[in-house]
Structures are given as structure tokens and as C-alpha cells.
């Protein structure tokens, strides 16, 4: 049976509940990252309340277990209600360290994801540039984002990945866009930050299969 990556973004304090629900459906492990959400709302900006602390929970499980977890998360965390959180799935091609009977990806699952309405844009930039990325995404119609502060192996150590030094001074910005808007978002960010220049940043796109809690004012 194929495995899926389930990503859940909720307010701080709810990550443990997400893992508890996942365990109930046979998903035994997970990782919680701390970040902040950025909401494009004029009133909240006026009140300086646009940055909300978030927890990003990553779990991997068999497709059936993940589907059951999503439905339970929808009910328990009220993800159908705007502002309560987001969860979405992505296919996995290859993985190591998961103790399942079948250790192989599912090409059909990946193909299904490629036909999804939404895509995840991940942007890795220097610490402090996350707001620039979010503003550019807002200009293209993206209404929200999640920022994670990247951590390397140590303040005095550097490792090269994608021609960038990965260290504690990195911001990781997660943007969920409609597939039809992805190209425009990428173009705006690339032009402004000159990502073609080595060391300027990294941007990559992944297809989203299922999503709950994504709202757009269309």
C-alpha cells in the first residue's frame, strides 16, 4: 500500500493533539516544527496581529491510515471552519526508515497529485526575507503563508545544499497556491530575489493531493 506525507498547520499548542489523532489511526511517528502564519488582512495589519504562532506537523503513513486521520482532524479540530488550520497530503516516491510491509512509492498516487487544484511552493531564503516573499505572494493573490525558521547542524558549521549555506539564519516559507497561479507567484519571487544567482535562495513546487482548510476569496 502506498504511503502519503500528511502536513498539518495549526495554532501553537495543537500539534500534540494532531499526533495523538494520527496515532489513533496507526501513524506512530511525527515531527512538529514551530513557525508563524502570515495573514493578508487589512484589519489585522492595522492591529499588528497578522503574525500568528503556528505548529507544522509532518506525519507519514499508509494511505488508508492518512485518509482516516484527515477525516478525524476535520472533525476534532474543526478544519472546515476558516482559520482553524490546514492539512494536506502529498505522495512520496521513495523513503527510508518507515517500518511498513511495502517500501515503495506509488506512481499512480503521484500522478493524481499532479492533477490537483493546489500546489505547495516552498521558498528557502536568508533570515529576514520571509516578509518580502509573503508580500510578493500577496501581490499574486496568495492570501496566507507559513514561515519556519531553518536550523543547521550548528552555529559554527555550514553545509552546502543547492549551493546555499544551510545554517540557523534561514527562513522557510510555505505557500499554497492554485495550480493556475503558481507560475505567476514563482515569476514574481524569482525576479525580486534573483534566485538564479547562487546563494540567493531556493524555490521548489510540490503537488498537493487532498486539502482541508484552504479558503480563497474568489
From TrEMBL:
Supply the Pfam families for this chain: P-II
GO terms classed as biological process: regulation of nitrogen utilization
One MF term in GO for this entry?
enzyme regulator activity
| InterPro entries membership | N-reg_PII, N-reg_PII-like_a/b, N-reg_PII/ATP_PRibTrfase_C
Superkingdom of the organism of origin:
Bacteria
Q: What is this protein identified as?
A: Nitrogen regulatory protein P-II
